Amino acid sequence: MKKHLLSSADLSREDAILVLDTAAQLAQVADRPVKKLPTLRGRTVVNLFFEDSTRTRISFEAAAKRLSADVITFSAKGSSVSKGESLKDTALTLEAMGADAVIIRHGSSGAPHRLANAGWINGSVINAGDGLHEHPTQALLDAYTLRENLCGGVGDLAGKRVTIVGDVLHSRVARSNTLLLATLGAHVTLVAPPTLLPVGVENWPCEVSYDLDASLAQADAVMMLRVQLERMNDSYFPTAREYSRRYGLDHRRMESMSEHAIVMHPGPMNRGMEISADVADSKRSVIVSQVTNGVSVRMAVLYLLLGGNSPAQPAPHEGIEE
Amino acid sequence: MNTPRVRTVLEAADIDRVLTRISHEIVERAKGADEIVLLGIQTRGVPLAERIGRKISDFENTSVPVGALDITMYRDDLRLRPARALETTALPEVGIDGRIVVLVDDVLFSGRTIRAALDALQELGRPRAVRLAVLVDRGHRQLPIRADYVGKNLPTALQESVRVRLQETDGSDEVTLSSGRPTPLGTDPTSGDAA
Questions:
Q1: How far apart are CA A168 and CA A236, in angstroms?
Q2: Domain count of the fold of chain A
Q3: Which domain holds residue A61?
Q4: Number of structural domains found in chain B
Q5: Torsion of CA B103, B169, B135, B133, to 10 degrees
Q6: Could you tell me the sign of the dihedral formed by the alpha carbons of A104, A105, A110, A111, in that order?
Q7: A82-99 pLDDT, tens digit each
Q8: Considering only residues 101 to 140 of chain B, which have any Cβ-Cβ distance to chain A shorter than 8 Å?
Q9: Range of the domain at B127
Q10: Distance separating the N- and C-terminal Cα atoms of chain B
Q11: This prediction's pTM
């Protein structure tokens, strides 16, 4: 693995499978009386959050603490950032405090890349969501959830069909997932109104469709994206009701999915908008287990990046070219 | 460079006899098989624990719980090498609380693997007693640890290496001793697979 995890594109197929396999072993720790491993004792992990977040921040914090790392959580509100401190000066401060890893969420696409490559800090940088760009650990936890539910928890996702629906334009989850799931061999179909597809989507490793009903029947998994109302400065669709009618997942649409297919959502949900409440709470929904899996996957990433004297190198598999 | 000399120390039949003896010793000391839980240390301890488990189950007419323990996260040399992939830890359903846990490993060397295993056990439960069975004890301990059941005591020089091959993991049963492969400086010889 590379030293930093900035994009799903940083992960080779072997890297991704190593993370998922490691996460599967670490998931057992949650069932033990002592939910703690001594592995990262003495390492300092900084949660650097310039944007609001509940589940990602808590998930990383829980993951680091289960591995016995010291966790410093830094949110921009109530810090010197609100006095105008630059990213560079914040980074230099963290470096002076001896951070071994910085987990960063930032509103600007590319901020983690800048932090990793500007020479301000020596530790690993993990992207926890930057602007409209990427959110690789979310993609890893989604891949883990898919593998558990569709592939018996082993290997890759070869041949599985995943349909990602909704606001692709503003979604870092969609971009990271498309890259990672394609790396793992899945067929990804993006479904969205034309106004909510980003420029250049034709170069992504996926198919694109405007018709949700047409792609539901073949899907092994349907991933609903949140309509990011806070980013809706222009009118991307006429009304919320119309969006919901054409691109929302309700009970009727869920019926047309195949027996084994699962429903996913990265959260937070707008119930009644992109997903109806009965679908979100149905048996097919794995939304709650996505959150649980998030902790295991983030433990795996932290362990593989920080556990040794350098990031883990997956054992070469037979018949696979490096 | 002279090629390293390889000498076979235990052959398949020897390994089987040794495991039979250890199985009897375990039951004798525990006064029966009821409280025993066998835990194999990844990777070659696991098939050894399974074999001992089958033998005890056979001659005591009961089934002995067997599990697997991965100690990677508890190693003291993690930071000397790149992060490693993890193996499975699988405890038997009965758990280990109040039981006599017998750790099983292939080679006892520095003792650091066993130290890590004891740390791991502490967080998994509270056994009544913990004992240690190894196929080969090659000496050179770096910690105050000893085995309760030893297949073969094998005096070695530090630069020699002991290699255990088992049907389940390597396709055949054999223990060999080869000379002339010095331990690289700066690494800690920890466990048995000495490879």
A1: 12
A2: 2
A3: 8-134+290-306
A4: 1
A5: 10
A6: negative
A7: 777 889 999 999 999 899
A8: 119, 123-125
A9: 13-76+88-158
A10: 20
A11: 0.91
A contact residues 5-64, partner B, Cβ 8 Å cutoff: 18, 21-22, 25-26, 28, 32-34, 36-39
In a domain, B175, yes or no: no
- pLDDT (tens digit per residue) in B89-108: 999 999 999 999 999 999 99
* DSSP alpha helix (H) spans, B33-174: 45-60, 112-124, 167-170
Task: Considering only the beta carbons, identify the residue of B78, B119, B124 that sits closest to A307.
Answer: B78
Tokens of B24: 């009897």
CATH of the domain at A201: 3.40.50.1370
CB–CB of A228/A167 below 8 Å? Answer: yes
Task: At A317, list the tokens.
Answer: 């598999």
Contact B82 A313 (CB under 8 A): yes
Judge contact between B99 and B37, C-beta under 8 A.
yes
Note whether A50 and A155 are same-domain residues.
Answer: no
Sign of CA dihedral B21, B111, B101, B75: negative
CATH number at residue B154: 3.40.50.2020
Q: What is the pLDDT of residues B69-79, one digit of tens each?
A: 999 999 999 99
CB A224 within 8 A of CB A274: yes
ipTM entry:
0.86
